Amino acid sequence: MKRFSINHLRELESESMFVIREVAAQFENPVMLFSGGKDSIVMFHLARKAFAPARVPFPLMHIDTGHNFQETIDFRDSLVEESGVQLVVRYVQDSIDKGRAVEETGYNASRNKLQTVTLLDGIEELKFDCAMGGGRRDEEKARAKERFFSHRDEFGQWDPKNQRPELWNLFNGKKNIGEHFRVFPISNWTEMDVWQYILMENIAIPNLYFSHEREVFVRDGVLYAKTSFMQLKDTEKPEKRIVRFRTIGDATCTGAVESYASSIEEIIREVAATRVTERGSRADDKRSEAAMEDRKIEGYF
Amino acid sequence: MDSSTYLDMELLRFTTAGSVDDGKSTLIGRLLYDSKAIFQDQLEAIERASIKKGEEHVNLALLTDGLRAEREQGITIDVAYRYFHTPKRKFIIADTPGHIQYTRNMVTGASTANAAVILVDARHGVIEQTIRHAYIASLLRIPHVIVCVNKMDLVAFAEETFNRIQKQFMDFSANLDIQDVRFIPISALLGDNVVDRSKSMDWYQGPTLMYLLENLYISNDNNLLDARFPVQYVIRPQITAFHDYRGYGGRVASGTFRVGDKVKVLPSGFSSTIKQIDFGAESIESASAPQSVTMVLDDDLDLSRGGMIVPIENGVSQSQDIDVMVCWLGEKPMQIGGKYALKHTTNDLRCLVKDVKYKVNINTLEKDYDDKSIGLNDIACLSLRTTKPLFFDSYRKNRITGSLIIIDEATNITVGAGMIQ
Lengths: 301, 421
Known about the structure:
Shape of chain A: globular
CATH class of the largest domain in chain A: Alpha Beta
Mean pLDDT of chain A: 85
Radius of gyration of chain A: 19 Å
Largest sheet of chain A: 6 strands, mixed
Largest sheet of chain B: 8 strands, antiparallel
Number of domains of chain A: 2
Strand order of the largest sheet of chain A: 3-2-1-4-6-5
Largest interface: A-B, 70 and 85 residues
Structural class of chain A: alpha/beta
Strand content of chain A: 15-25%
Shape of chain B: globular
Oligomer: heterodimer
Number of helices of chain A: 8
Helix content of chain A: 25-40%
CATH superfamily of the largest domain in chain B: P-loop containing nucleotide triphosphate hydrolases
Low-confidence stretches of chain B: none
Distance between the termini of chain B: 46 Å
């Protein structure tokens, strides 16, 4: 018998396609969360592969904080047009206007945490019974305990100490009315896997990931883009630097790194050499050691 | 590292098991630290935390304890997944806690593992927990078992101690079905024989743990002979260009399928030929486990989710009455005569528990034919009757088509992990 082996990226790819197909088969009304970041772009790419030549049999949902980089929105819209997928957008601003969420104030004000309200409201309004997210277990230590199929009660909460055991490739998506699931098809990918896969599959990503000149300022050791959403302190002087982003989230809490990496290959070399985690430039995680766990319990992505 | 070396990497999944305080988290921290999978900001964070707790060494265990309750109590509660890579392989560690709900968590971690790393404290030797861990590794048919005798620094790096423990382990595991077992003397705290060779144990000439993990031969771990393709999702594009396209999406469970192969589809039993195998936008000549592909057949047959494509001479078993080794994972005891939901490959069905054939005492490995009470963490052989025929292989032959989960219909919680006999 000839031995067969595939490299780890192909194995991860097949695993993720399997998980995405399970979602389509087990749930009546699933949705895929899409932020415009590389992880959700890869996840959507895997979904297209899983159902080709048919269209992806569920919509994308973008939770829009209003604090976007325009490049991300342009990228999202062109991807939607080219793929023919249906897109739903729910706005944090609407949650604020309805009094469902209260805007943070002060210099470090961010809408990152408010997204949870908009997300849970969106899931309830549109009656989604499963929301797929691009979370990876290597991102943060609370995420390391997350299942592929993560059960949420009627309040959208995660109970980390009482998760369903997940065995072999048998995913249990059974639930009661009002409950829903979060599913993380790329759980087992690392940041490096994602970049290598983008290279291998030649997947388009927003320009923000590549080196460019931008007006930035330093706060708590993190480089932030100067945008109309960020209130500057007197001591903070914006200056032009050559930077790129390692993650793309809400502009108020996504830090840039100084970099000349202008191709995927260069990014991969940079990621391989770097000694700081990708979330090291995320202000939302620096709030406390359990910041991610707390947000996840409430129903964050 | 350039792109081409990274693309040549294989994936190895392993699970770690040990009892309380035998240094499992430290070992994992050591593997991550020495393979440079720990980043500066993570290291700084645990350095701060170690100082705060007044500890002497940087506590590498803090890297793996992800939940607040775990850090506060200094214990690991749930299975955690860790990732690191070397130029040869990418590794996924399923890190399972040793104390509470040990069986439930270890079974979960073991179900997808190619290898199990079992820790033994050199001062205590083989204890009840070691026997449980080895038994679960054999029950779940983890192909490779690596026994790390840890804390060698606390027994003066004595060869006799290591040899004695190795013999203890071999003596009881003779009754188990473990295909490949290795022993390594280590000190996770000091790093001896984890990534770097020990300078204190010249008498040990074998590989370090990292070398072994990088070089275990895993290509034969999948069943290469019996081709099985459980249908997961029927793909029918409602678009003009692919009007007549009907593809069967799924992941090859075992073996290889080629275009032109004569196949049989289950449960109908009709035969056909593989016309095309699609992978995304491209068509490929053959598909092997564990690839996710889409199969197109020559004939229009009644085949949907829950069905299976197998070679014409397939040898797949078919029955409504099956004997299953079950690890009970539910808080509520199992009920004889009780009805449960069941998942097997892509099939959803129901089952009735007819009888408990025997229960395994996992401390002595003896079979008890009288005790019929099955509760959390118990392992027993059950006779089940399913609502419709199951197409399966024994778990010994096939980990995918031989495994199932049992679900409580009232709570929807997964309460049993089953391996078909």
